[in-house]
Structure formats: C-alpha cells, structure tokens
Amino acid sequence: MLTDDAVTLRAHTADDVEPAYRMCQDPVMQEWTTIPVPYLREHAVGYLTEVIPAGWRENTSWAWAISYAGKYVGTIDLRDGVGGVGEVGFAVSPEVRGQGVMTRALRLVVRYAFDTLGWSRVIWRAYVGNYASRRVAWKVGFRGLVTVPGGGVSRGVRKDEWVATVGRDDVLEPQGNWWAVPVLENNGIRLRAMRETDAQRVMEACNDERTQRWLSGMPSPYTLDDAAWFIASRPHAAAGGEAVTWAVADATSDELLGNVSVFELSDRIDKTKGEIGYWMHPEARGRKVMTTAVELVIGHAFRPIEDGGLGRRRLVVKCADVNTASAHVAEINGFTLVGTERRADPRRDGSYDNLLTYDLLADER
Ligand SMILES: CC(C)(COP(=O)(O)OP(=O)(O)OC[C@H]1O[C@@H](n2cnc3c(N)ncnc32)[C@H](O)[C@@H]1OP(=O)(O)O)[C@@H](O)C(=O)NCCC(=O)NCCS
Questions:
Q1: CATH 3.40.630.30 domain extents, the chain
Q2: With respect to CATH, is domain 184-364 assigned 3.30.360.10?
Q3: From the CB of residue 180, how many other CB atoms can be counted at a distance below 10 Å?
Q4: Residue 104 near residue 7 (C-beta atoms within 8 A)
Q5: Is 284 in contact with 292 (CB distance < 8 Å)?
Q6: Ligand 1 atom at minimal distance to the Cα of residue 130
Q7: Average predicted confidence (pLDDT) for the chain
Q8: Where is the signal peptide (predicted)?
Q9: Contact yes or no for 286/232 (Cβ under 8 A)
C-alpha cells in the first residue's frame, strides 16, 4: 500500500471489477490504451483476479488499484524491470479526471520503482496526441520526450508514439515550460489557439504568392494536409516549451486573418530570448492587423512567467531587407535594426536576400 494525503494505492479486490469494467467502456480510455474492444466483464475479471496477482507473484508486473475519496477510480502499473528499467501504465475513470489523481499516483509509483524495486529508470509511453497523459508524465518529471513513428500498436494497428523517461537521480518535477496559448484581444483583433477549422484559411494564406516568396521553407504548393499538419503540430510545440502560436482572428467573426508565433523559446543557454514570426491572409493585409497582433504578443512575451507570460528579456524579428511590409511591422512596434546578415535569406530561385535582424529589449518598453 502506498499513500499520500489524497490518493491511496492498494491491492485490487473483487469489488473493483465492476467500476473497472465501467471505466473501460469510456471511449477516451479505448482510444489511448491497448484494452480489448469491446471490453467485456470477463476481461475485467481476468485482469483483476488473474493477471494482476500473477504479476506480483512472478515479479514481472506490479499493479495497484487507485483509491480516491474512498472509491476505486483507476489502475496504475509497473512492468518489465529487466536490467533495472521498466514501464509505467495508468488510467483513471472519467469522473475524477483533471483533479490531480494520476499525478499523485504516478509520483508514488515512480518512487516505489526506484526505492523498493531498485530500478534506475522508468519509461512512459503514449500514443501521439494523448496530451492528458503527457501532462501527467511532464508534471512528474519525465523528460527527453521523443516521437517514435509507428512505435505503438493499438489492436493490430501501428500508431506514432511518444516516449519519455525519468531516472533515479532526477527530480520528480516538470522539466522545461509547457506554454499556454491565452486569448489576447485589442482593436477588434483576437489572438487565440489555432483550430482544425482554420485549415482552409491557412492553406489559402500559405499558398499566396507573397507568403511563398518570403517564407521559402514552406511546402509549395501548400495543401490542406500541410495546413492540418501545421495546426496539429502547434500543441506539441507549446507542450515542449518551444513555441507559442496564435491564430490572428477577427474579434467579431473569429475568422482567421493571419498567424503569429514566438519561437526559439527553449534555447538551453539563453532561456530569455524569443523570435517572432508572422504571416497574413492576403485579404486582411494593409489594415494594421499584424501591427496590433505583434503588440499583443510583445506584451505577453515580456510578462513574467509567474504572471502567465513567457518571461522573455529579448525579442527578435528577422526578415529580408526587401520585405518592407514585414520590416515595417517590426519598426512600428519599436524594434531596433541591429544587423544585416549578407545574402543569408534563401529564395526559391536559388538567389539570396540580405537578412535584417531587429531586436527589442524588455527594459525598453
Ligand atoms: C491520462 C489520465 C490517466 C490522466 O489522469 P488525471 O487524474 O486526469 O490526471 P491529472 O489530473 O493528475 O493531470 C491531468 C492534466 O492533464 C491536463 N489535460 C487534460 N487534457 C488535456 C489536453 N487535451 N491537453 C492538455 N492538457 C490536458 C489537465 O488539465 C491536467 O493538468 P493540470 O492539473 O496542470 O491542469 C486520464 O486522462 C485517463 O485515464 N485517460 C485515459 C487512459 C489513458 O490515456 N492512459 C494513459 C495511457 S498512456
């Protein structure tokens, strides 16, 4: 039995079969775990009364019932352990999600793996997109997250997988920032998280001739799939502490007008810098929309982390010297031109433009 002041981990009993069976009917549970579908009562009976006790007996897996407010709410297990390294798996019933139950349970079990089983490392694995599970692992100090294409199997189908680990000497606390994407508004402009439904507008904006000219790394032609991939990649970048990306939207219609990001946020040495990048849908250009959007981003980026901001000290904007519209957005927002890299900005025809660097320091505001 393992316990903190809110969660108790104990052996499963026959009374847990019914709530475990019910938990496994949850579509979220079925999507993110390897449980059989359809999930029958006999599956719960077999797992709780045969598989789990056998694991403890044979020293091959260690599963606990999670008890919260006196009730069975889920299961967490350790498995393998060969060479002092093993995996953790967990699930909690929908009624109690988001209350910190799994974070507590995971911390107890990781400590057990190190202190009692003598493991040196615990591995966490989840299918790509399971942000609730990723957040629990992040909160307990799992680190070094990588994506393994096709690394997981779900009922015979290969899926991309995230893997992260925590070692015996690591602190069980978050490593790096998991950025939020707050809604910011001014002058009829709203910055908000990107949505799947923005894909058509993203595709239009990124196929535009000027966007294609100045952002030469973009796919060409830029398809709806490219837009969907870009939108889906944004939560990953925010969770990994690398970038925060907003849709620049009309505050009345909420339609996407453009896109603005702060990136380069996870530099290992300088943790206080950031680069701002942007593009506008051609229909919305020339109305000072990006000027307003960048102003909002600057305010958020310079706000201290403890006040919900990004805690930046220095921001940069980079653009080709011949891209006057982009340079104008930087200048009007108070950025200073600090340098020109000669022939550093590649164009698609094989030529290069000079690249301007503008910067803005927090204490200049
Ligand atoms: C993953 C799971 C176990 C989390 O349990 P839980 O008790 O809700 O976890 P916690 O409350 O300790 O933490 C969940 C965190 O994820 C956050 N979260 C939930 N959904 C999220 C999402 N889509 N994007 C980002 N964060 C999300 C919650 O806000 C919470 O973070 P916070 O406390 O900082 O606000 C639960 O969602 C579950 O059982 N899912 C189905 C089974 C499963 O996926 N198991 C893991 C397989 S790898």
A1: 2-167, 184-364
A2: no
A3: 12
A4: yes
A5: no
A6: 44
A7: 97
A8: none
A9: no
Ligand 1: which atom is nearest the Cα of residue 127? 48
* Nearest alpha carbon, ligand 1 atom 29: 98
| pLDDT tens-digit map of 6-56 | 999 999 999 999 999 999 999 999 999 999 999 999 999 999 999 999 999
* C-alpha radius of gyration, the chain, whole number: 25
Query: Who contacts 25 (Cβ-Cβ below 8 Å, separation ≥6)?
Result: 39
CB count in 10 Å sphere of residue 34: 12
Other CB atoms within 10 Å distance of the CB of residue 203:
19
Task: Give the model confidence (pLDDT) of 171-223 as tens digits.
Answer: 999 999 999 999 999 999 999 999 999 999 999 999 999 999 999 999 999 99
119 CA from centroid of ligand 1 (Å)? 25
* CA pseudo-torsion sign 209, 213, 219, 221: positive
Task: Compute the distance between CA of residue 279 and CA of residue 258 in angstroms, rounded to an integer.
Answer: 6
Q: Give the Cα separation of 213 and 349 in Å (integer).
A: 10
- Crossing angle of helices 224-239 and 199-207, in 10° steps, is 110
When pLDDT is averaged across residues 91-110 and rounded to a whole number, the result is 98
| Beta strand 314-320 pairing with 273-280 | parallel
**Sign of the Cα pseudo-torsion (130, 263, 201, 218, in order):** negative
Let me know: does 329 contact 278? Beta carbons within 8 Å.
yes
Alpha helices in the chain (DSSP H): 17-23, 27-32, 41-46, 52-58, 101-115, 131-139, 199-207, 209-214, 224-239, 289-302, 324-332
- Measured in degrees and rounded to the nearest 5, phi and psi for residue 164 equal -145, 160
Which amino acid appears at position 274 of this protein? Answer: G
Ligand 1 shell residues, CB under 6 Å: 28-29, 32-33, 90-92, 97-103, 126, 130-133, 135-136
CA distances from residue 192 to 210, 211, 218, 274 in whole angstroms, order as listed: 24, 21, 22, 19
Instruction: Give the model's confidence band at 365: pLDDT under 50 very low, under 70 low, under 90 confident, else very high.
Output: confident
| Of 95, 96, 136, best ligand 1 pocket probe by most atoms within 8 Å of the beta carbon | 136
